[in-house]
Amino acid sequence: MSKLILVRHGQSQWNLENRFTGWWDVDLTEQGVAEARAAGALMKAKGVLPTVGFTSLQTRAIKTLNLALEEAGRLWIPVTKDWRLNERHYGGLTGLDKQETREKHGDEQVLIWRRSFDVPPPEMAAGSEFDLAADPRYAGIAVPSTESLKLTIERVLPYWESDILPVLARGETVIISAHGNSLRALVKHLSNISDEDITDLEIPTGQPIIYDFDGATVAGERYYLKDA
Q1: 122: pLDDT confidence band, cut at 50, 70 and 90?
Q2: Average pLDDT along the chain
Q3: d(CA 171, CA 152)
Q4: Is pLDDT of 115 > 90?
Q5: Looking at the whole model, is its pTM more than 0.85?
Q6: H/E/C letters for each residue in the chain?
């Protein structure tokens, strides 16, 4: 049996400030650092020790992984960083205060942008303050101008199938440190959650979620490591 460990990054500065973050690169807060370390300490205490790691190209997820691995005594394991594990791109909402956006556009419209399966937010204007087209980490990548959860799934799942699942199938214990929506994409797939029900799923920060695998097949339902 192999194990998959999913960890949403610890609280970020824009989580704290209640702003739409998406692909914009923000750091962890002190609380986020503590959450990441606690995740690693829990893995060590439970004896669930990763042998291979994957994360996005975003600082908050990378730092969460490094801090957790440090606490678990596993900084030495191989880690792959890939943009396809990035958070969903929030388009023109990036950087906006969520409450101010609700006051401007109405609760119903903002809920649709945030939680609908296939309705993306407004596109980000080229050359705007948060446009990442010139960011060197995305050189050669067609940076999206906005994404729905459906579009996020369309980049996450092929990467899962091609790069991560084969590692699990050979018996490794894999940790993925990523984001609320890229992890929702994986959980939707692995737990066979409907398009309608996935909109209600929350992934908490810094709480390791476990899937047991028998080869390339999920063996049972997901559970929180703290409950194991």
Answers
A1: very high
A2: 96
A3: 27
A4: no
A5: yes
A6: CEEEEEEECCCEHHHHCCECCCCCCCCECHHHHHHHHHHHHHHHHHCCCCCEEEECCCHHHHHHHHHHHHHHCCCCCCEEECHHHCCCCCHHHCCCEHHHHHHHHCHHHHHHHHHCCCCCCCCCCCCCCCCCCCCHHHCCCCCCCCCCHHHHHHHHHHHHHHHHHHHHHCCCCEEEEECHHHHHHHHHHHCCCCCCHHHHCCCCECCCEEEEEECCEECCCCEEHHHC
Residues 6+ apart with CB under 8 A from 207: 7, 8, 39, 224, 225, 226
Q: Hey, which residues are catalytic here?
A: 9, 87
In the predicted structure, residue 111 carries a pLDDT above the cut 90: no
Mean pLDDT of the region 200-219: 96
Whole-number pLDDT of residue 37: 98
pLDDT of residue 116 exceeding 90 = no
Token duo for residue 197: 């029900």
